[in-house]
Protein 1
Amino acid sequence: PAGKSADYVNTGTWAKKAFSEAKIVGKARLAGSVEEADGTCKRIPKASELDWDASAAYAHICSNNTIMGTQFHEFPDTGAVPLICDMSSDILWKPIDVSKFGLIYAGAQKNIGPSGVTLVIAKKSLIEAGREDIPKIFRYKEHAKENSLLNTAPTFAIYMMRNVLQIVKEQGGLPAMEKRNREKGALIYGLLDESSSFFRGPVEKESRSFMNPVFRLPSEALEEKMVSDAKKAGFVGIKGHRSVGGIRISQYNAVTVEQVAKFVEFAKGFAKANG
Amino acid sequence: PAGKSADYVNTGTWAKKAFSEAKIVGKARLAGSVEEADGTCKRIPKASELDWDASAAYAHICSNNTIMGTQFHEFPDTGAVPLICDMSSDILWKPIDVSKFGLIYAGAQKNIGPSGVTLVIAKKSLIEAGREDIPKIFRYKEHAKENSLLNTAPTFAIYMMRNVLQIVKEQGGLPAMEKRNREKGALIYGLLDESSSFFRGPVEKESRSFMNPVFRLPSEALEEKMVSDAKKAGFVGIKGHRSVGGIRISQYNAVTVEQVAKFVEFAKGFAKANG
């Protein structure tokens, strides 16, 4: 609102875009950034590095940074300032205490369902206080008032989300998802730690993402060869985002432990043959 | 843009909402309205009734009014002012000369495919001149620059749109759709004209919608009975919008001439039994 500012933390591409968009409709400031000179972010900032504005309207973070391969494993304490979190790429990866957040938003297209719908969990008091000089479609209060039917709802995406949530429940819910995701993470990061002369993980250990482990090979030529060999072996989509290069293993909830284990086996063979 | 105003025409619920939203982000004025004291609109305004601002940034109309059952059958001449048209509920109903419009937008969920995606056809010069102080997601220029991949695309809805367009092509394209839609319109409006003592069409003849014919029965009790009897006979969704009441026959491209003919037969029987 007028006279207020919002705090943002730059931990990667999407966090930065959120900050840049916020500046268009209001006043926003950076409470912290871990962006390096080459544009990459290799870690999540420590609590002591974050300079929160105690009078901010809200504080915004992005919990998982798909391109950088980093993830918040402890959420910052912003005191009385409502914490807003973009969980698009890691919601449902494990149980989360939603009461700690003023608002959580998540584009469905990773762990919830197909693209085309966004889940929002918000404190009523926060959205009630929202600005009324912005388009109605941007006012969460209006969406809540209309039971999420302010606009014509994307029915197929919602139907698929219902099905995915049902499957997650049947498979043991979020505790089971967390167990599975930690096993997958242990497999991939085990590989990086054991073969660090060949697979170089740029991300600080405590900031590693369980959704998108990233790593580099000794040369870009080898990275290209790995992407191509992997494709022949049945592993697709392992190329890192074009803005940072390297290899990225997206292992969202739908990816099984067995699939990751098979990839790790393939990667070990690749290292042996090309290392 | 600053210092400019946009013209809107109120022909019903959606046209009015567009006007109301425009006033939030800029200056907007009504070039005409056919809203009556009871909130309904029974016709499309004549060219002579529209008071266009020759210096407007654009002029906005809604080509088909689903709730009121009216439709533009001749598009207004706005001279040098770009005409923007919401064709959400009647795009693809017949061939349209898109070159006459500055911008056309259409939510897919009627004639193009499932809900969750919007088609936009725009003059490059118009979108290039768009404001840059609004959220990026609202700037058509940015969407065009990124080949419609500014945001994560709703892939399933786009895939279905591709399939629907393919089917429309296979069935003879838009000339075939127009022929079919005019036949459907002739059937329903034939019923209203022949049995006008029982089926009362509130809409002026020249403004009748080929997508959503609406009519009233002698009493609300009979309207309720018709909805209920129709359901038993296999016709669903014929209840008029709650804001206006009555009966509404939505006959988008996917509805066949045969289906409408069967409904008309049912309606004649209903009139005979209850008239």
Protein 2
Amino acid sequence: MIRFNNDYSEICHERILKRMSELSDTQVGGYGLDEYCDEARGIIKNLIGQDNADVHFLVGGTQANMTVIASVLRPHQCAVCASSGHINVHETGAVESTGHKVMSIPTENGKLTGDIVRNIHVAHWADFSHEHIAQPKLVYISDSTEIGTIYKKDELIDIYAACRDCGMYLFLDGARLGYALACEENDLDIKTIAENTDVFYIGGTKCGAMFGEAVVILNDDLKEDFRYIIKQKGGMLAKGWLLGIQFTELLKDGLYFELAKHADDMALKINKAVRESGYFFYSESPANQQFVIFPDSLLEKLNEKYVFEYQARVDETHSAERICTSWATKEENVDMLIADIKKS
Amino acid sequence: MIRFNNDYSEICHERILKRMSELSDTQVGGYGLDEYCDEARGIIKNLIGQDNADVHFLVGGTQANMTVIASVLRPHQCAVCASSGHINVHETGAVESTGHKVMSIPTENGKLTGDIVRNIHVAHWADFSHEHIAQPKLVYISDSTEIGTIYKKDELIDIYAACRDCGMYLFLDGARLGYALACEENDLDIKTIAENTDVFYIGGTKCGAMFGEAVVILNDDLKEDFRYIIKQKGGMLAKGWLLGIQFTELLKDGLYFELAKHADDMALKINKAVRESGYFFYSESPANQQFVIFPDSLLEKLNEKYVFEYQARVDETHSAERICTSWATKEENVDMLIADIKKS
Amino acid sequence: MIRFNNDYSEICHERILKRMSELSDTQVGGYGLDEYCDEARGIIKNLIGQDNADVHFLVGGTQANMTVIASVLRPHQCAVCASSGHINVHETGAVESTGHKVMSIPTENGKLTGDIVRNIHVAHWADFSHEHIAQPKLVYISDSTEIGTIYKKDELIDIYAACRDCGMYLFLDGARLGYALACEENDLDIKTIAENTDVFYIGGTKCGAMFGEAVVILNDDLKEDFRYIIKQKGGMLAKGWLLGIQFTELLKDGLYFELAKHADDMALKINKAVRESGYFFYSESPANQQFVIFPDSLLEKLNEKYVFEYQARVDETHSAERICTSWATKEENVDMLIADIKKS
Amino acid sequence: MIRFNNDYSEICHERILKRMSELSDTQVGGYGLDEYCDEARGIIKNLIGQDNADVHFLVGGTQANMTVIASVLRPHQCAVCASSGHINVHETGAVESTGHKVMSIPTENGKLTGDIVRNIHVAHWADFSHEHIAQPKLVYISDSTEIGTIYKKDELIDIYAACRDCGMYLFLDGARLGYALACEENDLDIKTIAENTDVFYIGGTKCGAMFGEAVVILNDDLKEDFRYIIKQKGGMLAKGWLLGIQFTELLKDGLYFELAKHADDMALKINKAVRESGYFFYSESPANQQFVIFPDSLLEKLNEKYVFEYQARVDETHSAERICTSWATKEENVDMLIADIKKS
């Protein structure tokens, strides 16, 4: 079976394992306070053009999300996100388990806007009973989003301006940041992201690393004691340098973005073939996740060779499926899939 | 100013203060383990026709809701409610502060149904990734609801059957239970409620008491150690007998339902007048909360004499307001309000 | 049976019930935003000599403790208290239920000192692994303490100076503040307390009120959004003016301290009699709680007429018991008890 | 510098990296539901002789501890441990952050006993106010302990019998289980551990793995929905098979215990040398952690070549340090250290 169900089906890019093998005998101090993490921190600060940023390495995305949000919010404050947001639908209530409501906003494209933020702010404070309502204080967005869409430069600038005006923090979940930045439609760059968020992370797990997310804190107010929170929430890896090594390998010479571009190219190829074959999309994505609507007859055949991720039943004879490419996707497999789609 | 903004604008029915005065010298043991609480417990068990029920007295509604839900759920489980549910909108994230997600379901009338419960259950367990999603385990409903509607007998029986089929608990918030049971449209009685819920409470604060909610646990699985949870969540009143006294006074001879009927009658009178005057309703309620849509011109005049609770802006010249009667509402004030509405 | 087991065995001072009866018909706005609460706030600000203080009324002590601590601390921070501290032993882990460790320090007299605070601070920050340890940030003390001791003026000044030096907050639980301030040994006054804490409360429940604790926030950094936290933790009484009325009645003309003085005088009488009869004390208290060690033979007789609170088994023939007087203790009962002790 | 400060200073045993390299191209399903995890589960079930056990793989120790405890306890229940227990001192209040008190018991050797458990149980339930006290429900022990001691077979059997008698759960933290089981003094085996605990884990991070702890749930009552809790607490590794691979490599042919034995042998060698040189121990340990008391003069010299972990200042001229060996410790370095100690 060939897996197109997600972007974390292979261990990691070979360069990472090679580097780990080279260092397997070396003794290093624990918990991320080592030279390998420092090297990766330096690369990231250089990449984003901000020397004062704090960079922390966590193991996974749910962990990163709940650790950041728990660190930032006071008990009565809540995180605002699109209804499709990962913290709202696929983290088993991790944010709530740290005591905070997630205020979810229905959207068509999985994205929030400056206007949405401003409206939430005004509605909260205009309510005479606002003390009876969880206070919106942090805006959570993902790029690319859970349904494959991406933020354009002006959209991010607008939403961050709204957050600043409203006294709210902007947190960008970059679990699939590579795939967002590498795709054709994108006009954002990582420096602009760093200038227009309070905290974001660069996803490793889904973009070529064995595991790991690099949390970048830009806003000074959010920096204090973050390592305590990482430790308390179970996210402080004993052998922290494993994370430093990975981000160094991925980021020191642009490998991260090359890998992501490959995935996006493969996805575009599939997108084109699906379109040409007359099939429709469940949502439109320019990046590595393609949400297609296929008839059952086609799916039955494809499922003999390929694994997709089921999304929803669309009508009596059609289902929506996610076809996900990754840094590791082989073009020959993509070509075979395309042939099989067209054959139908 | 005459207050129609809520049903807790006066201290309490005079009988309660009288009884407190009689007992002001009497020494009693603390924390609800006294003879006055036992007397009230006996009256309630008799009323619901279930000798094995556990009855606990808490001070307020938010406290009752979060204490019950925190006691019942394991960390990964969530409470399901209508989007208009009190736990979702007016408790500053109290349930989430105990670690649990609130899964809110948009409804037109503020009520859940057996079908909604079954669909949620099926959707959860059918999802291959259900472990990544908060597990729906408790259904929270209110009677009367936050928008004034009430549950009919067959609706409650249906929703409880669904809960049992799905392995979920049914919790009924009865902050306004009196007003629900006393209104004309109602066909439910408190015995049927006790037979068709796992836990519910009889609201005191909004129905003539100084404060207090009587939580009734029917399901044996939910009884263990509940008093620990009350204490931990700050709800164990030192002078617990104050609660026993109040519920005894209200329930020993039907005063509770008389008071509620008075409020409902007053609300119906207002409802009729509003209707006759050609105004519309924001939501239809047979009980003590009337959600009316008034033109600004009328509101401007009424607001000189009366306090309502603002709900929403309906259009450029109309707003929705809640007119709330209570056990203490004076008929002369209702008549004056009606005259003022009709005059317009 | 005559109760000496605690100081909350009677409903409340008669003046409170009288005032409630006078106001039973009056309509008032909810949630503590009313003129009666404002009046009480004014009296308290005047009493402490600080116009900028924020005053909030909560229902009970456990609720006040956990609400204050949850409001003040970030997730990784802990509260430091004496091992005998109420939050450590008699609140069913309420503080921990809001996510915070309670760091308990063994003491002989139930009191912390400036030196203890400084040592904890130095030890924490000197530890290379301090991020792996809950960060001490709030110091919790009680006056009078859970074992009946009181803080002297210089002791409080010293501990607050230590807190400020160490960047920690000082929170004084005043559930029995009246009894502390009214006793003969005391040299503290409420103005000095307000000048030497960041937040404290004036206890009502144990000092003549029906219920209620007046939380006074002195430190500006701790004031923001406190009402949200009250609501979230279930402590916002719907009929908030009931609290305003009580504190006004108790504090407007010194009744609070008169009642406390009476209790302390009664306790001193008992203390003297116990001493004269040759019995020992489990701990030495100048205030309304006397911790005596009685032989079983004496206890057996006394238990026929009086209720005490059992503390501990001291040896094979002796137990320690708490004899607690209150604002409501009748001198005739005290005299009878003394006679019965001396008779033995 | 040669590190003796902990047992997680090298990446992992070479066999693990080799196996990862072999599988780097292979596509595998996520979240621990794969054949590699299943293989490791099979090996572990075989090793403990219990086919019905549930085996889950988590990333780190703090995460494993808080996930297990949060899953097992209801909100009012607490975990009992020795004061030196890892959950009490080195996890930044992680257990408390999930809402549960940690009840710490001072001990001389870092170990709890059946008698301690029984006494805690009796004391709790004998207290008339037990509902005001966090309920002891889970006993947490470590083997080897945080101060290097180990549980003997009869000690574990005794403590588990006490737990069953008292209705409490026994949870054994095996972060250093290998080092405990491999040392000379030990008479326990892993089957006996599985028969005498409700849940325990086999530590990988400190015993040769890159990371990972294998949680084994024996008690059926504790099995339900554990994967939800792992996900919620951020411990579900996307590429879960990385954990399966590691435990398979370590456990399939006894490598785990060989590596541990090597570390213990090295520690014993150091222990003997320290003893022969006339130095004392801060605590006595038969396993891989040696807690020595060295004069400053010696430490000054050793610190030029070796890294230890500082424990405490013992007197004006001596400090206690932890010398920790591991699976990766080179005998030549141990010999050099011994020579340097003896030289002094």
